Automatic annotation (TrEMBL):
Location(s), subcellular: Cytoplasm; Nucleus
Protein name: Acireductone dioxygenase
Pathway where this protein functions: Amino-acid biosynthesis; L-methionine biosynthesis via salvage pathway; L-methionine from S-methyl-5-thio-alpha-D-ribose 1-phosphate: step 5/6
Positions that bind Fe(2+): 86, 88, 92, 131
HAMAP family attached to this UniProt entry: Salvage_MtnD_euk
One term under GO cellular component: cytoplasm
Co-factor requirement: Fe(2+); Ni(2+)
Keyword Mitochondrion belongs to the record: no
E.C. numbers: 1.13.11.54, 1.13.11.53
Species this protein is from: Linnemannia elongata AG-77
């Protein structure tokens, strides 16, 4: 996992969009925004994922392949939906099994931080954080999605600052 400030240029979202010069963002800075990260140690991720699920009370899981082949004719629409700035009322937990992509999050100063993810990365975005996702130019990512309860994935597009989960998120990061 590598994180840095996003350059905000209006070009292909699948490009790296790294500022020049680069402004890296540390794991500690991500944690200050509520983002958690684990590097799974080998290709047999199951035992490590099972432990994280037990520790964090994740009860359900599924897999998604984000690619032209995996999503078919829905590919372009789904990618556009994933890249719209939004939040969820639950954590977004992704274990990257194959491929590469980007999660962009809003940090405490409301700047875009780009997080490059690849196979072996497990990332948790807190409920209420504004974020978005896109593939990189490889156009392929396979991920395990983890859920505390039944799978729910309802994006609430910005602005939704009055949302109680957004308010709770802001209170939590201000306390850090």
């Amino acid at each position: 996992m590598r994180a840095y400030l996003y350059d905000n240029l209006d070009t292909d979202c699948r490009e790296p969009h790294e500022q020049n010069p680069s402004v890296p963002v540390s794991v500690e800075e991500l944690e200050a925004s509520g983002v958690l990260y684990w590097k799974l140690k080998d290709e047999n991720f199951e035992a490590q994922i099972d432990k994280i699920c037990a520790d964090r009370n994740y009860k359900n899981r599924d897999q998604i392949t984000v690619s032209k082949e995996g999503l078919g004719e829905l590919f372009d629409a789904k990618i556009k939906t994933f890249f719209a700035e939004h939040l969820h009322e639950d954590e977004e937990i992704r274990a990257i099994l194959e491929g590469t992509g980007y999660f962009d999050i809003r940090d405490k100063q409301d700047r875009w931080v780009r997080i490059k993810v690849e196979a072996g990365d497990l990332i948790v975005l807190p409920a209420g954080i504004y974020h978005r996702f896109t593939l990189d130019t490889n156009n392929y990512l396979k991920a395990m999605r983890l859920f505390k309860e039944d799978p729910v994935w309802t994006p609430l597009n910005r602005p939704c600052d009055e949302n109680p989960y957004r308010k709770a998120y802001l209170e939590a990061i201000e306390a850090n």
